[in-house]
Each structure stands twice: as structure tokens, then as C-alpha cells.
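Sequence in, structure out. First:
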Amino acid sequence: MILSHAFGMLFRPETEWAAIKQEKPTPMVVYGLYILILALIGPISAYIGTVETGWTIGDRLIKLTPDSAMQLVILTYMAILAGSFALGYGINWMATTFGAETEKNGNNALALVAYSLTPMYIAGLTLLYPDPWGNAMILLAAASYGAWLMWKGVPVVMSMSKEQSMVYCGGILTLALVLLVSTLATTGLLWNFGFGPTFVEAGL
């Protein structure tokens, strides 16, 4: 099953990339049976963590209202889906320039994005216990591991040399940073239009 690749990406990435290349999953399969499912982990965990668990500041327990948390969960989930698609599209668009294998349906590029993001999807479980610094450190470690997975996967999935893949990965990283900045800017605008969080406070 396609979800078994999540385990493989975490513990045997080189073997898993070769299997994925041979499998040739279609974008519909990758998006529908992998991204749509695993991308739910973080938003659902964040909802439970912010509404049920909350976080402490001094002697205060801070939580989000259920309606506010649900609103943010939906926006976050949509951002993950849109970002995954945009990054996959960009990677496929750059493929010819860097001498990589390109396909009209972009299945190689989307598979590269989906499976490289596996650590980030799984790390979303840490949001069950809101801890801004702790969550940030774990997500940063997951992002770093995801970048390493992509670096290992590019030569295999995109059928290119390791020398070419280093330059190609630089282009992918630049594109990912542009998408991240765009997402943060959009988040700021949405908060200004009333889509920001609503907090409630309770004593410990």
C-alpha cells in the first residue's frame, strides 16, 4: 500500500526511493492516498492540542476556542495541500532546465515532494502538546531530514546525476523558501481580515 512508503522514508530511504521510481505512482494516487491523508496529522493534532491541552504561561492556561481552532485547522490544511502541489509543479517545471526527467503529468516531481515531506507530516503529532519552542525544534529537525531525503531522492526519481542533482536541489530549496514566505505573508493578511486565533484563559 502507498502509505507503507511513510515507514520506508523514515528508516530505509534509499531502498524506498528505488521502489517508488519503479512503482511510478500517478499524481492522483500520490495526492489522494498519501498527501491528503498524512497532511491531516498536523492540523488535527494542533486542534486537539490547542483546544483540549492548551499551554501554560506562568499560572495561566491558554487555549483556543473550538471555532477559532477549526478555522485555523482548515486554513492550515489547505495551505499544506496548495504548497505541496505548487512545489511539485515548480520542480517539474524546472526539470528540463537542470537536465532531469520531466513528464507531462508531473508524477515524478509530486512523488518527490510528497515522500520527502513525510518527516514533516509525522512531526505534526508533536502539536498534540503545544510547546512553541519544543514544537519548533522538532519541526525544524523534521524539515532538515526532509531536505536530506529530497537530496537523496532527486537522482533516483528525476533520473539525473548526483552532480546535477546538487544544483537542482539548490533551485528546489529556493522555490520552497519563496513558497514559505508567500504563505507567511498570506497568513498575516488573513489575520488582519479577522481570521486570527481567539484565545481563552483559565487558571491552573
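Second:
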Amino acid sequence: MMEDHLAALAEAARRTRGSAPKITAWGRQLAAVFEAGGRLLACGNGGSAAEAQHLTGELVGRFRDERRPLSAIALHADTSATTAIVNDYGDHEVFARQVHAHGRPGDVLVCLSTSGTSQNVVAAAKAAHELGVTTWALTGPAPNPLAALCDDAVTVEAPTVATVQEMHLALVHGLCAALDDALGVTA
């Protein structure tokens, strides 16, 4: 069982390797966003929410080497706002409403969804477009509505949700490394 899982992960990594130039370009673009005073917003559900929070934690804290804290918000992490929005507007609006509150033209929204069909994540991407916020998606297999809607996307071809999520973590770390490199962060 474990050997099958590792084999699936290795195959997904092989297929996703071609996305390295895109992730490097995202890192450069994100460095420019931060240098201009912008921020990164991130959203997802379940394991994808954990990945979104992992990303923002690396940015507000640090990835490998010391650097200034960067403005990054995981939209699910404010439990009071999240539960109030769900109560008053429904779960489909939970991220879109926060994008309207926190997003500014030139910011970046990273949308994570293993299926690419999560209604509330798709709604967040639509809200971001209304505001002039750049949208990037990390999803499972294409085609899917989220990847099609976002300004750019990396889709992971993998047989299970777990493998997609593990590849998303590798992509998040790749984005952090590319960002730090673009910012000139060294030990």
C-alpha cells in the first residue's frame, strides 16, 4: 500500500515537473506585488485550507531564510468572520465576501481545490476578478471550472485527493523558494 502511494506521488511529481517555470514566474510576479505594497490572499476547503494557511504562514513568517514579513491572509482562518458570513450569506459566499473586504487591485489570490469545482472557491475567484486581483489556481486534474476561470493555474494529474494535496504542498514550497529568490533573500 505505501509503495503504491509513493509510486503515485512520484508519477504525479514527474507530470507536474513541467510547471516549474510557471511557479518561478509566479514567484517573480509575487515579489513585485509585495514590493508594491500588495498582499496575497489564499483560500481552500479542508486539506486545501490547510495548504492555503501553510502558504500564508511561510510568507508572514519565513520559508528558509530571514526576510521581512509579507502580507498574506488565509481567508478561512478568521473563524469569527467565516462563521458569521456562512450564517448570514451562506457557505458559497464565505471567501468571496472576504476577497471583497481584503482584496485590492494588484493583489494575488491563490485558490486551492483538489477538484477545481468548489463553489465557494470559484466564487472567490470571480470576486477577485471584479476587483482587479490576480488569480492563480492549484487544482487537481483538468479540465475544471476553477482552472478555467483563474488567470493562471497548475493542475495536478493524480489518482487520489491525497496525492494532489501532497503535490500542492510541493508547489507551495516551490512558490516560496521562487519568491525568496526574486526578493534576493539569502542566508
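Remark: The chain is about 55% helix and 10% strand.
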